[in-house]
Amino acid sequence: MTKLLEWLSAFIALFSVWYLLISKKVARHFVSENETLIFYSPIIAVLLFGIYAATVVLYRVFTFNDCEEAAKELRKEIEEAREDLRTKGFVFKNSDR
Amino acid sequence: MANTDNSNKYSILLPTYNEIDNLPIIIWLIVKYMGESGSNYEIIIIDDGSPDGTLEAAKQLQKIYGEDKIVLRPREKKLGLGTAYMHGIKHASGNFILLMDADLSHHPKFISQFIEKQKSEDFDVVSGTRYVGSGGVNGWDFKRKLISRGANFLTQLLLRPGASDLTGSFRLYKKDVLQKLIESCVSKGYVFQMEMIIRARQLDYTIGEVPITFVDRVYGESKLGGTEIFHFVKALLYLFATT
Ligand SMILES: Nc1nc2c(ncn2[C@@H]2O[C@H](COP(=O)(O)OP(=O)(O)OP(=O)(O)O)[C@@H](O)[C@H]2O)c(=O)[nH]1
Ligand SMILES: [Mg+2]
């Protein structure tokens, strides 16, 4: 089953449950008591998921390692490499860098 | 940490296009760190007729380090990354293939960690990851981090790939596994790496991960633009609908 079909099946299953509820085919008393909540539950679910997604993504952006050390180490190694390669006879085309 | 097991050979594929400033440095670093690890290796440089003279630099390096260590497999013109890897594999004598960029954003010091990881559970693929543990990026502004994290979140949600870094191209493969993966991939260019790891999951290959630090290229042109994002979304939807 492709990922698209998985998502469609889950979506259809959830939609069916929701539809049975709001058309009062099942659990009639429970639905009457919570009518608006159940009616709007798909929108609420989407909103909550949106908040979750935004929080997770932003958290990960702000905790993304900056690796300053790695960059510094690399710059040092570039210098070392250029020096060592020159002694081995390598001719750099852009010698000013 | 000398390695006594000499039955494995690692072929490091370096595709280059206009990397004249980076190539000598990356080769120097690979020789340094692979020498320390004691693993048996070769470096295969696939240059696509770079107008900046990368191939000339590669020839100089071959003279310095020897033809057994540095193998040159140039092509006449720029034919893209996917076919460059295919071309390189054909000439690889190792039983493992390591893919990395030549632009210094992938540091050779991690290769020995890839090798250790692979051995630990006989993984088919070991992928470097910027998104987990000590991994990270350098030189990225807020916007680029946001796009990267957002795209990664969406991909994880839709595809559940079993790997945390889909678009990275710093990876170690068993040779036959890589050949099968490349054959089963349809996309070209930037999103090719993402498809490779999705196909790996689809074909039930095991994937190990090593956190890596990614330092943005110091020399040369970078080309992250609107078209890359467009290609990414297109590939994501394609894989979503077909795998
Ligand atoms: N042989 C060959 N190498 C290529 C080609 N395109 C890119 N490369 C090399 O592939 C590696 C990755 O390409 P990059 O240009 O770094 O792509 P990127 O990492 O997505 O983007 P930036 O680093 O931001 O520019 C580098 O070593 C390039 O020199 C190509 O058409 N042929
Ligand atoms: Mg790069």
Task: Note the total helix count of chain B.
Answer: 8
Low-confidence stretches of chain A: none
For the largest beta-sheet of chain B, the strand count, sense and barrel status come to:
7 strands, mixed
Query: Would you tell me which CATH topology of chain B applies?
Result: Spore Coat Polysaccharide Biosynthesis Protein SpsA, Chain A
Pathway (chain B): Protein modification; protein glycosylation
Protein name (chain B): Dolichol-phosphate mannosyltransferase subunit 1
GO biological process, one term (chain B): dolichol-linked oligosaccharide biosynthetic process
Function (chain B): Transfers mannose from GDP-mannose to dolichol monophosphate to form dolichol phosphate mannose (Dol-P-Man) which is the mannosyl donor in pathways leading to N-glycosylation, glycosyl phosphatidylinositol membrane anchoring, and O-mannosylation of proteins.
Report what the structure shows:
The complex is a heterodimer of chains A (97) and B (243). In chain A, 76% of the residues lie in helices and 0% in strands. Chain A has 2 domains: 1-33; 41-90, no CATH class. Chain A is built from 4 helices and no strands. The mean pLDDT of chain A is 93. Chain B has 243 residues and is α/β, with parallel strands linked by helices. Chain B has helices at 22-37, 54-65, 81-90, 111-121, 142-159, 175-184, 192-202, 226-242, and strands at residues 9-16, 40-47, 70-72, 96-99, 125-129, 136-138, 171-174, 207-211, 213-215. Chain B has a 7-stranded mixed beta sheet. In chain B, strands 6-9 form a two-stranded parallel ribbon. In chain B, helix 1 (22-37) links the parallel strand 1 and strand 2. The longest helix of chain B is centred in the middle third of the chain and has 18 residues, at 142-159. Classes of the chains: A mainly alpha (97), B alpha/beta (243). The A-B interface holds A 2-4, 7, 53, 56-57, 60-61, 64-68, 70-71, 74-75, 77-78, 81-82, 84-85, 88-94, 97 and B 20-21, 24-25, 28-29, 52-53, 56-57, 60-61, 63-64, 104, 107, 131, 134-140, 142, 145-146, 149-150, 153, 158-160, 213-215, 218-219, 239-243. The complex binds guanosine-5'-triphosphate (GTP) and magnesium ion. Chain B: Belongs to the glycosyltransferase 2 family. Chain B: Its EC number is 2.4.1.83. Chain B: Its cofactor is Mn(2+); Ca(2+); Mg(2+). Chain B: InterPro entries: DPM1-like (IPR039528), Glyco_trans_2-like (IPR001173), Nucleotide-diphossugar_trans (IPR029044).
